[in-house]
Amino acid sequence: MTAPPARPRSLHTRTILVLAMRNLSRQARRTMLTAAVMVLGGALLIFSFAIGDGSHENWIDSGIRTSSGHVTVEQPQFRVSRKLEDRLTSAQRGEAERALAMPDIAPLVVAVSSRLRIGGLASSAAGARPAQILAVDPVAEARFSTLDDQVVEGRYLEPDDRLAAFIGVGLASSLELRIGSRLVVQAQDTENEIAAQLLRVVGIFRNGVPEVDQTVVHIPLQVAGEWLGSDEDVTNVGVVLQGSEAVGPVTRHLETTLAEPITRGEVRVMGWREANPALAAAIAIDDFGNYLVFGILFLIIAFGIVNAVLMSVLHRHREFGVLQALGLTPGQTGAIVLVEGLTLTAVSGFVGVSLGLVATWYFLGDGLDMSALVGEDMTFSGVVIDPVIVPLFRAVRIAQVVTFIVAIGAVASIYPALRAARIDIAEAMKFER
Amino acid sequence: MVRFDTAHGHRLIALCTLGCLAVWTTASAQPDPREIVERIDRLMRGDSSRGVATMQVVTEHWERQMTMEMWSLGTDYSLVRLRAPAKDAGTATLMAEDDIWNYLPKVDRSIKIPSSMMGGAWMGSHFTNDDLVQESQLIDLYEVEVAFDGERDGESVWELRLTPKPEAAVVWGHIEFLVGQDDDLPRWARYYDEDGELARTMEYSEVSEFGGRLVPAVMNMQPADKPGERTTIRYEELEFDIDVEQSFFSLRTLQSGR
Known about the structure:
The complex is a heterodimer.
Chain A: H1 9-26, H2 28-65, E1 71-74, H3 78-81, H4 90-101, E2 109-124, E3 127-136, H5 138-144, E4 151-154, E5 164-168, H6 169-174, E6 182-188, E7 194-205, H7 210-215, E8 216-220, H8 221-228, E9 236-241, H9 247-257, H10 259-263, E10 268-271, H11 272-275, H12 277-315, H13 317-325, H14 330-364, E11 368-369, H15 371-374, E12 378-380, E13 383-385, E14 388-389, H16 395-421, H17 425-430
Parallel strand pairs in A: 3-8, 5-7
Antiparallel strand pairs in A: 1-9, 1-10, 2-3, 2-6, 2-9, 4-7, 5-8, 6-7, 11-14, 12-13
Chain B: H1 9-17, H2 33-44, E1 48-58, E2 63-73, E3 77-84, E4 92-96, E5 99-104, E6 109-112, H3 129-133, H4 138-141, E7 142-152, E8 155-164, E9 174-180, E10 186-192, E11 198-210, E12 213-223, E13 230-240, H5 251-256
Antiparallel strand pairs in B: 1-2, 1-13, 2-3, 3-4, 4-5, 5-6, 7-8, 8-9, 9-10, 10-11, 11-12, 12-13
């Protein structure tokens, strides 16, 4: 009796694959149920991430447009001191503006606005209120800010305006101002003297954030230059980009171009996370909450998979006994179960991600209108939230979700595979069907 | 309420001496209105002074009275210290050049006041920052004309109408001053908004002699839209050209609680 020739290893692998596939197809109902959980989970995860990222992008956009932009170039001390003396000279301002106009970076830039921001006092015959005075170039600022779209009366500043002020509804009502009313602003000028300036209200806006509506006053930069003796100087050059993902490259580009004044400590380039720490923190908190919810969701899905695969293993006790009696090693038996689990996970994960992408794509154009749920004016962390959320599609999220699904599939299949590998053949064969 | 008050105590003294003329020799039949206002302005810029005044603030919801002592030197230096009520006694404000400091005795701390905090009512009163910080002279900001010259209520008076110059940084539509021709002191000032509606009235009364000058001892500010409210300042002591050094207006004096 000659020993049978050793079967090639590939045959083992093939056998394992065939057996695994056959097991999956033979128990179609069980397979479908398990797959359904995974598909739904994957789709939900992709869609929720896109909505979450989309709303964060929305927060960032409205947050940075009412403050200093995605990226801001300013004097290092200005953020703390808020003083006019910590301003950028016209030369530094010009350098930053030229750097942003360079062809390799210009396509990422949506708007650049150089402005002078000072705290002061706004007064009328009806009283006085503290004000945040923002001296701007009307054309550049109209592209930068959202306030010019929120006019309720009058108009936004125009290039030929002199002595014009664009104010919020809150300030207008507390100082009893109308279009054409006298408004006097006072602030410390470059000589540290308190200087007053007469303005006429040309437009009134409603932003929705009470602090903005009550304190922000836009005036032409030229008027501020004469009033405060600051000429063409500004306190920051704000940049709005195509999206928050462009912040890194643009910041690096600016830091390279402005390396000289930066090393002298005269200029600082900041991304919005640094410039708006409260907004960055709000987004981080929201992201953490999302991860927590998704973590719990997937833990439940993982238990579902473990349960389905484990039940199928216990159910097929005798079958595995027969396989091992026919010569399969415990390792190979375990491998069958593992392959079953991984195949199921991979296929349903793929279907789920695709489904999620389709849902995301569907809402990509018009966005998801949440106004019925949150109302027209929702503010959060000093930012007005647009109730229409346009989902944001990010490749890194797909990679995250796929990795997550595969990892959970693998982990959830290991225990059943171990159970299958460790069965006692004699015990298993005893069972009758 | 006392925390973010502006300094400029000298302005308060100046407001009182508004229109108070020590010398009024040339009794001309055709008064130059600019000259009248200029004299008012000049007196607003006294060299040095010291005074004690009580301020009574009446609003719809509360009423309070405080007594303060103040020193001033030129337009750049002033110190105001509360003497009463007891719970606020010692609270002081120092203005030295462009810095304003507040001293709170309860916590023994001096706080520097940013210029943007100077807004709003002065010590919760109906005096606004404008009344206290106005750096420019009336004559530079307003066109002046005599609206009335003659007898009114048995007294010879001028009624002056001050209209802001085109780009003057003032909030008022116009101001009316009633000045007595005998003593050259203001009787009242009415502040109007641009629609010609009365915004507030300042009344000067009880002309008394302080430090050799005739001064209205009582000033009463009344907002037009809140009839029940007013702020009344009454001078109890007032002396001019006192012996005070620039070094007096220091943080050390502020904290000494003297």
